[in-house]
Amino acid sequence: MIVLGIAGGTGSGKTTVTGAILEKVNAHTSLLEQDAYYRDMPELSLDERAKVNYDHPDAIEFSLLIQHIKTLKKGLPIAQPIYDFTNHLRKKETTTVKPARILIVEGILIFAIPELRELFDMKIFVDTDDDERLLRRISRDMEERGRSFESVQEQYRKTVKPMHLEFVEPSKRYADVIIPRGGGNNVGIDMVASRLQYLLTL
Ligand SMILES: Nc1ncnc2c1ncn2[C@@H]1O[C@H](COP(=O)(O)OP(=O)(O)O)[C@@H](O)[C@H]1O
Ligand SMILES: Nc1ccn([C@@H]2O[C@H](COP(=O)(O)O)[C@@H](O)[C@H]2O)c(=O)n1
What we know:
Keywords: ATP-binding, Cytoplasm, Kinase, Nucleotide-binding, Transferase
Protein name: Uridine kinase
Bound molecules: adenosine-5'-diphosphate, the ligand Nc1ccn([C@@H]2O[C@H](COP(=O)(O)O)[C@@H](O)[C@H]2O)c(=O)n1
EC number: 2.7.1.48
Shape: globular
Pathway: Pyrimidine metabolism; CTP biosynthesis via salvage pathway; CTP from cytidine: step 1/3; Pyrimidine metabolism; UMP biosynthesis via salvage pathway; UMP from uridine: step 1/1
GO biological process, one term: UMP salvage
Helix content: 40-55%
CATH architecture: 3-Layer(aba) Sandwich
């Protein structure tokens, strides 16, 4: 199994790049999203959950993500959690992810965790300007994650930006390939897809 890590700041285009690679690679591929592994905090009220720092590594159950990658590498399926961003909670249901020739793992902090980092055969960092990422995030969070403009603004200032500078941006140094701009970068996406096709022939 080839394990590909795709990191980058929030709104950088990780999901879009992942989709573009999946379309180009002619092989069965599985996907694990770091976003699915946010810790469940049902003991907190909705207001308290809305104030949690979701951009610090402690907010994510990385031990479970690491365990799931290792299980898939052994050829066994895993039950990936499903996260509800509107209520900041895990759902009761899970998604079964089966092993495949290629495993893509996507998330803002996946290169910031040494034990996780060493599981990747190829590391891609999607590098998009901060202003563009913020504009995308405002639209995405208001349209898809049930957020108000004021809440996105406050969260960005209090936690998203400082954690990006402390954890996400420095993790770029561990990437093998940096894809500027994200989804629209067809040359970068083609190069990654070609490399994957080549690795599949070995
Ligand atoms: N190249 C692009 N141009 C315009 N909008 C984009 C582009 N890439 C992504 N988006 C939009 O920006 C938002 C965030 O993109 P996404 O791929 O989900 O980023 P990430 O997974 O890094 O948070 C989505 O609504 C997506 O449709
Ligand atoms: N309850 C939550 C959990 C996470 N977030 C934000 O999600 C961002 C990461 O997701 P991307 O798809 O943008 O990579 C991260 O920056 C968290 O702030 C949230 O808002 N609420």
